[in-house]
Write a structure and sequence with these properties.
Strand order of the largest sheet: 10-22-21-20-11-18-19
Number of helices: 24
Radius of gyration: 33 Å
Strand content: 15-25%
Number of domains: 4
Length: 633
């Protein structure tokens, strides 16, 4: 019951009523302040400020009492308690306008904070509101609309143009373009075809598609985001906790100074004025509004910040460590080189022979060669004989050829020797961090070519590292790949500090050494093996779209579009947020200090003191709110 009354009184309609009655009491008090005789409206048999005190004071009193009862330790003493003390002190000396003004401005500050928070959460709330409620399941050749809760992994779903995709899935029929902006921040629809993944909450724009449900219910990408949102809303940042602690010790300090002022001046009005101007409104409001505004700003750009602590720590980061595969690179092997050593076999023929031999292989390198041939529309001929030797290579008979595809050792076991030209090519490819598949003709016992495969560096990686360097942020590459591969990609990205061939625990040790050297470290990764390092770093960022669930759960921030060019944006946003918080807290403390001096000099009264101090509080909140729309190019 008390909670309902409190919510009703603290709402916007009743706060407006409180403001009207305070305004009715403002003119006579203003006249009195400047030496005129106090004139009260005969319309009311009581001072109108009483209405403001009741409407805006009760919720504040409720909050102060609740914290005294339920909070522990010093946190029982809160800013609400100090404001209530100031309110009762003003009532005691008969300055009802000052009492009403203190609680009314706090009510305005609370509404402003809530409005800023709601605006900042707009992008996050959109995620929740877009959660689909129904899907079209295909069963026995018939379509049926069912609630999303009834969709199971392995179900076949049909998505028509304009419909929201209800679960994560893989396209098994049809082609379309999907609007993924709510998930990734990409402005243009992404073309999708058979075999490609689609995500829950995204919109099918053009063609009809059938998908195989792969992640449903709480496991879907959209529900994963919603859980992140809830985590972000339920966690406070260190600066916010520091502000709460400041509010706690300010209460006894304020009481001590107020008592000292009364003893020194003998004027109880001066003591009450000190209590009024000491209210730490701006100190308490500055951090949460800045944090939530920044989180909302990041969400618009496809960056999900789980909680404010990560945002503050990112602002202090001076070292960023990157995983390689799936982070600096796309994490998929593609054919990069086709080298023929037989004049009768050109590059396209070499690819055709290798793809035909590897067509029945389950090895990732073999699959990548076949995928390349298919994409280039190169003929893939079915083999009549196929044998695979695990870890070495494959033997296949294709038309009149006996083909060997594999390592040097595999070819040597079948009597194929490697000459100096081939060795030289292999060494060059190794220095470039590429994997090589040798292709040989078994009849002639001759190596006819080599196909090199390589991961692909993200095109934005080099510019991103350069921008971080301009921001005086050190970059480090931590990877489990071999040293040559790591060096090659690090050189391409412009990273000088390379630590390769690391096991997961060795990545953790590298992070700890960077921290022991005095650095604040951010780790960016995407795989299961990155999770320990992500947890160890001061701040962790996961590649949210392609990254593993474990990596995302272990991280503080997720990049939903896997766009690492947003790392400098995140750093600039974090820097700006920390500066805004510090500036706001400094401003609030300066306002308090000046107001206390003026109060002790008896320049301010409770009425004018409340105006000066609480107007500053609102100003601080507005500064924080500006973060939401600030441009970080």
């Amino acid at each position: 019951m008390l909670k309902k009354v409190n919510d009703f009184l603290s709402g916007i309609p009743m706060t407006i009523v409180a403001g009207v009655f305070l305004l009715l009491d403002f003119v006579p008090h203003l006249i009195e302040e400047f030496g005129g005789a106090a004139v009260h409206f005969s319309l009311f048999p009581f001072d109108p400020a009483w209405v403001t005190i009741v409407i805006s004071g009760i919720p504040l009193l409720y909050l102060a009492v609740w914290r005294v009862i339920y909070n522990t330790g010093i946190s029982k003493i809160s800013s609400a308690l100090l404001i209530c003390i100031a309110m009762f002190a003003a009532i005691w000396i008969g300055d009802l306008f000052a009492a009403g003004e203190v609680v009314f401005i706090m009510a305005i500050g609370a509404i402003l904070e809530e409005a800023t928070t709601n605006r900042a959460k707009k992008g996050l709330k959109k995620l929740i509101s877009l959660a689909p409620t129904k899907g079209r399941r295909l069963k026995g050749g018939e379509e049926e609309m069912i609630p999303t809760e009834e969709i199971r992994q392995g179900d076949i779903l049909r998505i028509l143009p304009g419909e929201t995709i209800p679960v994560d899935g893989k396209i098994i029929s049809g082609e379309t373009s999907v609007d993924q902006s709510i998930m990734t921040g990409e402005s243009l629809p992404v073309d999708k075809g058979v075999g490609e993944e689609v995500f829950c909450g995204t919109i099918n724009r053009f063609g009809a598609i059938d998908i195989l449900a792969t992640k449903v219910g709480e496991n879907s990408s959209l529900q994963k985001l919603i859980r992140m949102v809830r985590d972000a809303e339920n966690k406070q940042a260190p600066m916010q906790r520091i502000a709460d602690k400041c509010a706690s010790w300010l209460v006894p300090v304020a009481l001590f100074i107020a008592i000292g002022a009364y003893i020194g001046t003998g004027n109880v009005v001066t003591a009450v004025t000190v209590l009024v101007v000491f209210c730490p409104c701006a100190l308490v409001l500055a951090t949460p509004t800045a944090i939530m505004a920044a989180i909302g700003q990041a969400t618009k750009h496809g960056v999900i910040i789980k909680f404010g602590e990560a945002l503050e720590k990112m602002g202090k980061v001076d070292t960023i460590a990157f995983d390689k595969t799936g982070t600096l690179t796309y994490g998929r092997l593609e054919v990069s080189d086709l080298l023929s050593f037989d004049k009768s076999v050109n590059e396209i023929q070499l690819l055709s022979l290798a793809a035909s031999a590897e067509a029945k292989s389950e090895h990732p390198l073999g699959k990548a060669i076949v995928a390349c041939a298919v994409s280039k529309e190169v003929p893939v001929i079915e083999s009549t004989v196929f044998r695979m030797t695990t870890g070495k290579g494959v033997y296949a008979e294709v038309e009149d050829r006996r083909l060997l595809c594999g390592s040097e050792k595999f070819l040597a076991e079948h009597g194929v020797s490697i000459d100096g030209m081939v060795e030289s090519a292999l060494e060059r490819l190794r220095t470039q961090g590429k994997a090589s598949i040798l292709v040989a003709d078994g009849k002639q016992c001759k190596c006819i070519g080599v196909i090199a495969l390589s991961d692909v560096l993200r095109p934005e990686a080099k510019a991103m590292v350069s921008r971080l360097a301009e921001m005086k942020t050190r970059t480090v590459l931590l990877t489990g790949d071999n040293q040559k591969t790591a060096d090659y990609f690090a050189d391409q990205a412009g990273i000088a500090d390379v630590r390769a061939e690391l096991l997961p625990e060795e990545k953790v040790q590298s992070i700890e050494k960077l921290q022991e050297a005095g650095g604040k470290v951010c780790m960016i990764g995407d795989g299961v093996n990155d999770a320990p390092a992500l947890k160890t770093a001061d701040v962790s960022v996961a590649m949210g779209s392609m990254g593993s669930d474990i990596a995302i759960d272990a991280s503080d921030v997720a990049l939903m579009s896997d766009d690492i060019s947003k790392i400098p944006y995140l750093k600039r946003l974090s820097n700006a947020t920390v500066k805004t918080i510090k500036a706001s807290i400094t401003l609030s403390m300066c306002i308090n200090f000046v107001a206390i001096i003026l109060s002790l000099a008896e320049v301010l009264t409770p009425t004018t003191g409340a105006l000066v101090h609480n107007a500053g509080s609102c100003f601080v909140v507005l500064i924080a709110a500006l973060l939401y729309d600030r441009k970080f190019e």
